[in-house]
């Protein structure tokens, strides 16, 4: 179980959007894919001339050994890593992660792969973990979550020879392929338009933690979309995604004399708690209060009223990320197509603003 | 990274209820715990006499090297396996598993451990997986789910030298320590007593798949408890735990002229779907229909009405299983105490039977 990728391996960042395969390298060099592996792995009975021809062909085609490091290892682990930088209790509070894991597992299980789940407290711990996993040869690749500005992880993983995909909106300039829906902004604008069209003017936003990138992004779009209609947010309240803080935020919004007539929540589980809190306060949803969630969890479709929400296709994103990563690990898997953006699913929890 | 546990290692099944520790062996032999490891691992600079004394002491105390195999390995993986024998989409449909994983991760994360999650389709695949994980030295131990009659896994894992704990009701005769709440029957009886006390006579049960052990157990207790009151179940309907089948079962129960006045669901997410379906049909919960769930998921506390449910302490069971397994892997962790049985949590979704 060695983690070295052999001599002559240059670990360059992969070029997304133009990913040559080991098959193409083999065909161009007139050898088998096994021979390509052997050339990079410094194994087998290749002549030095053949080895050099294969390495040259790979360089020419821009085939990145780093992207296929796992395929070059003498032993595959059939394990992919998913490192989540969250407090552990968020896994329970936010079904987003179980949806994501379900989507990933749906692709891994039939192929005999396992998912190594690590929860870490911070960026340093996360980076140290990738180094250890690579050094000990524990995983074939990694699914990265929570895209950040100036993200050091793509370069780190390329250096470690670990194939990776990053969950986040598509970005052609990214050093690691990204899997996710683009145009999150368009979805938030669609939510605001939907509520404005129903006559709402006092619209509040119950957001996630202020330090998360997508919290800031969506909050900014929410404010801009309202401003274009000559309005300001009724309020923007930050939470830690827990049920307790969702209920507290809702109660604060509904206690005011001139209360909000519509509340947009950063995820479905908070929205469902919000509906419960409003109903308990004697308000009817949507007659007295409209509620919009975000995620399109299965349960939201079955509560009464059925939840209006933004479909992020979390399971499908997880599945697509797993497929792309499996392909980069040398498995024969086709990439999965995703819709281009999250979409508003209008159900029963939104209605005309009270007169 | 070797998976052999050294010469002289006898892999016997651990004796629950009497688990000597490596510390006790070290103290009795007058050596350090490191020396005990070395003796079993065939490493270090021990004299043959010392090595033999340590091995004899361990045998005398009944210290099982199999229970501490991970501690004896030259390299720890800091990874525990959780193998779930379910269709992948159940992970998403039943928050039970995300609660369980949350409980486990809460103990692993602070100690730098990861959880290797595998979904398998059947028993053969599960057993083959343990063999591979042990042979490749991928995990330090395993949390086993879904206790079965004539379970081959405890013996298999003992043979493989992999420490394990089994999620299930306590059983002193079990070859592998069990972590879970006992007296599931008492909890179901408590549910039936609660509903009978409220005057309900037409009580239905929306169960899980008929082939699951706990489905059969709870169904049997449900029928027996009603029979003791001179009643029979209004109906027992089996589902695959999905929202769709929960809603379909609820509609079938409510369509009848002489409809059920109380429905007990095998888990909370089905119960929440059931409340939605009843409300959509124009029924008030609990005035027209009482609903009881099973699991005590966080969300149930916040919907309107708040869900009456059975607290299975899933997160705490996960945490306790992780702690016990970590201890068996040589970590310095105290075992966690669990309540002795699941308890009924009466909230707002149950009330007097309609007159």
UniProtKB/TrEMBL annotation, chains A, B:
InterPro entries xref list: HTH_LacI (IPR000843), LacI/GalR-like_sensor (IPR046335), Lambda_DNA-bd_dom_sf (IPR010982), Peripla_BP_I (IPR028082)
Keyword DNA-binding in annotation: yes
Keyword DNA damage attributed: no
Keywords: DNA-binding, Transcription, Transcription regulation
Top-level taxon of the source organism: Bacteria
Molecular function in Gene Ontology: DNA binding
Amino acid composition bias (Polar residues), ranges on this chain: 1-10
Region of interest: Disordered: 1-21
Stretches assigned to the HTH lacI-type domain: 20-74
Name this protein carries in UniProt: DNA-binding LacI/PurR family transcriptional regulator
